Predict the structure of alpha-amylase.
Amino acid sequence: MSRKRPPGQPSRPPGRSPSWPRSTPLLRRASLLTATVTLAAAALAGSAGDAAADPAPGAPGANAFWNEPHVQGFADALSAQSKVWYTLGDGELQNVFYPQVDTPDTFGLQYYVTDGSSFTDSEVANTSHAVSLVDPTSLEWQQTNAASNGKYKITKTYVADPARSVVLVRTTFQNLSSAPLSLYAQYDPALGNDGMGNTGATDGGTGDLTAANGSVASALAASTGFTASSTGYAGTASDGANELTSGHQLSTPGQTAPTAGHIAQTARIPVAASGSTTFTLALAFGSSTSAAVSDATASLGAGFDTAESGFQSGWHNWLGGLNAPPASVTSGSKLKQQYEVSLMEVKADEDKTHVGGFVAAPLTPWGGSVSADSAGAHGYHLVWTRDEYQMATALLAAGDTTDANDALTYVLDYEETSSGYVKQNSWLDGTQEWGGVQEDQVAFPIVLAYQLGRTDATTWSKVKLLADYIVSNGPATGQERWEENGGYSPSTMAAEVAGLVCAAQIATANGDSSEAATYLAKADAIQSAVDSDTYTTTGPIAGGSYYVRITPNGNPNNGDTVSVANGGGTYDERAVVDQGFLELSRLGVKPASSPQIGNSLAAIDATIKTVIPGYGTYWGRYNHDGYGETASGGDYTGAGVGRPWPVLSGERGEYDVQTGDLTGAQAMLTSMADAANSGYQISEQIWPGASADGFAQGQPDNSATPLMWTMAQYVRLAIDISAGKTVDTPAVVAQRYANGSPPNQVSVTFDENATTSWGQNVFVVGSVPALGSWDPAKSVPLSSASYPVWSGTVSLPANSAVQYKYIKKNPDGSITWESDPNRSYTTGASGSVTLNDTWR
């Protein structure tokens, strides 16, 4: 990982000698080292001296940026008392989150090593890194860093203290050289999601390094105590890392950083002059520095072994309560370990203050170019209901009904609004960040409620709002699942249909047959219109017939333009395809055998499929995608080149399961596992070409690693393969559309020739629920794509007499009805028909 910022970092507390801090309590003085260690430490302290230091110069420090997301491990302790989450990568502890999983508080914690005269190394830059699991059934990660110069080796094992908000790092430092070496801890706080608001000093009672920013504080302590420490401003002369790099010593003992800024903290740890030294670091967080210091002391007092035992037990108990790993992963140790890590990290992603809240990922994509100079919306530390649904269905499939239920309750309480609109994304406390309207995010909570059997009155009241919102606003969506374009999307329409059918089931369970009929009528109308709204027969790709990614006006054959976000360009709607249509079969809206789906698979395979030798088969989001690194591998800047997403291999694998091709599905599962890095983290995107620009072919790029949607997809696909079916397909939807169309329905297209003034829109309303039962609020909107003809397709009951009229809704909210009498039409037994009318 490249830090993209100067190496500067802190030093030590005021008035401390380079030997033991004078006021360190007995606990900290009772070192496991011999007197030789203490003497060696004092000898190497050089000119540090006893003199008190002034406040560090250079405030506020260099601009702050978030770490790039080379995450190789993510973990927390499964206890309510421990509110810290952490990521590991590039040989260091990267980001720690406290007191919620949406709030990053650090840039990193690593060691510096020097001989005091000729060299100073940092772990990130000057060692080779390996990561492994100490215990395959808990998230106990270990990093092993071997010096490039061969002079030392550092082994670090991480656990979160289940009893406190403390990360413990058991460290073994091996001096492999013939001369004494000095070891320094280098810690960069970014408390409260803010890189420029931090102050720091050394605690006068313990010698711990403390930092604070408003109501969040941290304390860094060691079981050995520190022999020197300092706080400075990152990227300036007062930064301890700069002091070590330039002079091989910490030259400003006791220095503090009282002015808020981008600070860096450095502390010297006494190590033996030769051989190995083992000790524990504690990085504690609290609402005040005194609280953090107290917790650090308590964790070190209880010992690493105690915390490790509790940490492992928490994970063992949770996994033990789930279904056994499916047969699809038990034939290979790699696949099985990937399954268990993916499942555990999805669980670890859950917040503890807002139970059931899951963020999209514990990181910032391309974070090395993302400013951290102030608190704000950095990266994927937000809740997206779509991602939350994917994680909840994976947990449910694995046997964790508790967390799946908590996820639904969280969404209904924090993401749903009083109108039924679901926020595009939000912080864990429900504060909305972006303001887009995505109809699939309105529908997915309804599907999850059905899958969980949640038919209680409270859940029904929330589901009703969601379903009513879809009835009033669907099938067009403000944004589809890639959050960039509005219009008619097959993936969104699939979610709407499934949500409405599931809502009808819940309505029926609550005795509301009228609402159930309305929802089914709307669902049938959308299901019947998917092809006419989104399936082109005049396209330029693979035979010309396939689902487009999105069409602005519900006419996939008229060549409307679609502007691709992220600098992708503007194209004929028929020239842009994605794999979202597979939601139609996954959600039971169309059979997997549908010829339209088969034709569309040929189109995406011709445009966005990538086969990487030795890894597997992958797909991009859509052709012309600009969300990714630049062509030369630089960080995404608002325009770039979209690359393959392993999660889409999982979606293709689920389709293979539905068609009975379990061999193909297993290949997709293996493709996903092979795209993971050495820490079993599967990313948002991978590098498809030859290894270059710092990236390895078939491995994560600098987007989001891990993406929790991807980790959840791996779990669900593994379970699907062994089950021989897609376990998250709502049965009530699949049964309704088993034959490819609504039961006992006729597809009726209403074409009304009507001139309108600016701001007017035309709707059809009528005597049956599918036409709103004469309620203008539930009337069916017609498309103006072929103006002055307004058009829309509705599924109506077969062999039924229907009365209807057209209305115009005016900009001021008033309604103009066409003249009497009512129009009438009697449907046949099956098929489709177009009614050509003119406004009167």
In short: The first helix runs from residue 26 to 29. The chain has 20 helices and 32 strands. Residues 1-52 have pLDDT under 50 and may be disordered.
